[in-house]
Amino acid sequence: MGHTSVKQLQTINDGVKSLAESAMEAGGGLLRLTPTWVPRSFLQPGKRLKLDPRDLYAYGLDRGGIDERWFGSTTEAANEGRVHDEGLSYVQFEGKRFTLREAVAELGGSLIGDDIWSQYGKWPVYSKYFDNMGPIPHHMHQNAEQAALVGQQAKPESYYFPPQHNNVSNNFPYTFFGLNPGTTREQVRDCIANWNKGDNGILDLSAAHRLKPGTGWLVDPCILHAPGSLCTYEPQWGSDVFGMYQNLVEGREVPWSLLVKDMPEDKHQDIDFIVDQLDWEANVDPNFKGNHYLEPIPVADTADEGYVDRWIVYGKVSGKQYFSAKELTVDPGAKCTITDNGANSIITSQGSGRINDLILDCPKMIGFHELTRDEVFVSATAARAGVTYENTSTTEPLVILRYFGPEVNPDAPSIGDA
């Protein structure tokens, strides 16, 4: 009988290289990953991650509810009171498990590609499902220069709203982005200065956009955004930096510490410094939607062959492609072989089938410690050789989301091409 729980697996911390090589060989360049759950103390879970409702507070009530599942992650979650491996993905193989981060460190370019390995020495991106009952605070993510002040990295990110995880839209399916054209720096400064006087009113300076399943957004660092209540697939840079600029959300206090957590300690009370962390021109952009909104774009006209591969995340941030993502839909009984330019991490959002010789199955409900067969890391070698996806169902499509590392897809569309 096979293993069904993480608790049944032996965790390997040393001597991972030979085990990782064996896993790669057995999987034909594919690594099976186990679910990675992340809580947030200041948010209310949206209950669409397929996590067993009894396990929403598996880390403890004081840690908050689990509202995120991370994919292909070598990035630690920056949560107060976190467990030692929070946010890190694990590889499962022959009754053992080891972190994807350790596998990357041992296998290097053969796993993630020589270009990414030589430039970054790690897998520098990750993705997640982000799922909340209501909106989250208007916040930003620091750019490279700002994050370096506290020994961190910048965090550009992207959104895609998978229809399979949005059968309900929850309480507020709208996202505030940026600041209204004409907003003054002094108005934002007043919002920060009035932090302890009730609602600081920063949303009065912004506009909300209705969120639509099957679409997405690309968000640069230093841009304010208050994500709404759709469940979101978020390819992003491997960093967890942020600053919350809204102090009250649905009656819940946002502590000052979450505004300044990734700012130098001697600047924690410097309101001018805090305001100057924002990219003003980008925030007040009168064509914000046109410069950030994403519609899916088919890679090729393959519907007659029983499958469609679509770009769902594309575009550049400050002239660089930090990440990109595709959604593959395979019709019942169909099979296709997909060749990609580099390593990618996949999550099955609907259906059942196979990826090469590994089973894929999208679970209906997942216990906190349960193993799944819906998540796989595809090595650069396997991706370039071609990966075969087969839908073994006779009734429903097989839907796969997969994201890529930096500059892997120079042929990806540009913002506005849809």
Q: What is the number of beta strands?
A: 29
The chain-level mean pLDDT equals: 97
Provide the β-strand percentage band: 25-35%
Secondary-structure-derived class: alpha+beta
Computed Rg = 21 Å
Q: What is the straight-line distance between the termini?
A: 48 Å
Silhouette: globular
Sketch the major β-sheet.
Answer: 7 strands, antiparallel
- Count of DSSP-assigned helices: 11
Strand order in the largest sheet: 2-27-24-29-22-21-20
Roughly what percent helix?
A: 10-25%
Low-confidence stretches: none
User: What assembly state would you assign to the polypeptide chains in this entry?
Assistant: single chain
Could you explain how this protein is built, in words?
This protein is an alpha+beta fold and 418 residues long. Helix content is 17%, strand content 27%. It is built from 11 helices and 29 strands. The strands form 8 sheets. The chain has a 7-stranded antiparallel sheet. Strands 3, 4, 7, 14 and 15 form a 5-stranded antiparallel sheet that branches. Strands 23-28-25-26 form a 4-stranded antiparallel sheet. α1 (16-26) crosses α2. The longest helix has 11 residues, at 16-26. The relative contact order is 0.17. The model has no long low-confidence stretch (mean pLDDT 97).
Offer a few descriptive terms.
418 residues; alpha+beta; seven-stranded antiparallel sheet; five-stranded antiparallel sheet; 11 helices; 27% strand; globular
